[in-house]
Design goal:
Two copies of one chain form a homodimer. By secondary structure, the first copy, chain A, is of the alpha+beta class. Chain A folds into two domains: 85 residues, Arc Repressor Mutant, subunit A (Orthogonal Bundle); 60 residues, Ferric-uptake regulator, C-terminal dimerisarion domain (Dna Ligase, domain 1, 2-Layer Sandwich). The first copy, chain A, contains six helices and six strands. In chain A, the strands form two sheets. Chain A has a three-stranded antiparallel sheet. A three-stranded mixed sheet of chain A has the order 5-4-6. The longest helix of chain A is centred in the middle third of the chain and has 14 residues. Strand 6 of chain A pairs antiparallel with strand 6 of chain B. The structure holds a DNA duplex (30 and 30 nucleotides).
Chain lengths: 148, 148
DNA sequence: CATATAAATGAAAGTTATTTTTATTTATAG
DNA sequence: CTATAAATAAAAATAACTTTCATTTATATG
């Protein structure tokens, strides 16, 4: 992720463009997989001299609330975050349980569900969580049958 | 949930049929909304005389892993659990952000996604998380516009 | 450019959900 | 009934995450 892009995203969110925020976005943007708050911290510390862990938590939470980064749900309770190169258009993610790589899943098909809920019960849909888990192509080939 | 049903479910999972496990399933089965481990603990303590909190955590985790109960994802990091009366057929849940009630969502439409991933990248889908959040019908009517 | 101000961050301490460990108890197969 | 493997209690530990408040910094405005 280019510095200009992260700056633009932050400005759009009415957040100040600070080195910490940009560095966190750059760090996640370099990865094709998700990272925990702790992992982000370890990676950006040398680049910034120093940064407090609460700052990392705060920024990750802000960006996730704003929808810039995606929370990845795993069986351990830790929160993990992924910054998708594709910042446009509603889509979801396929998460490889073996190598942690995240791929886009274009198909969503939840517009129909929202309509159904509204029609059936008079309710209103505000958000949804969709995450596909599995073994990615290269992991399937690399060690066929090694899936958990 | 009837005692016979919980016993049958536990036997099918090769888990011992213990009073603690049954009481936890009964407790969740009585609710139309999700509960945290702590809430389950408070509710079953008087019925069992005493039970340790780690036991509650262990049993909830077992049942969730087995797919008998569903983890509900909220913005606070706490784990919450829901036991669906409908134990047959693949489906998902609509969670009311206002009253915590959980309703079934029959439509899923993820079979196509699995096929797509397999075709496009050679990957394999093992599971998926889908949760619809919103305001349920009665909350919408009860206090129209009171949604967060 | 200078500066006022609201937002952002650091540092340290605190909170709490969740887990681990080990000894004891209990469900169940035979 | 009895053996045994699984389940539970109790207490302590862990670690993810938050809070607080003093200090610093980005940025709007003159």
């Amino acid at each position: 992720m280019e510095p200009e892009q992260s700056a633009a995203i932050l400005k759009q969110l009415k957040l100040k463009v600070t080195p910490r925020r940009q560095e966190i976005m750059n760090c996640l943007g370099r990865e094709q997989s998700y990272l925990s708050a702790d992992e982000v911290w370890e990676r950006i510390k040398p680049r910034l001299g120093s940064i407090g862990l609460p700052t990392v938590y705060r920024i990750l939470d802000e960006l996730a609330e704003a929808g810039v980064i995606t929370r990845i749900f795993l069986s351990d309770r830790k929160q993990n975050y992924f910054l998708c190169a594709n910042q446009e258009g509603h889509h979801h993610h396929f998460v490889c349980e073996s190598c942690r790589r995240v791929e886009d899943v274009e198909q969503c098909g939840l517009e129909g569900v929202s309509r159904d809920i509204a029609r059936r019960s008079g309710g209103r849909v505000t958000s949804h969580i969709l995450q596909i888990n599995g073994i990615c192509g290269s992991c399937c080939q690399g060690h066929a049958g090694a899936a958990p």
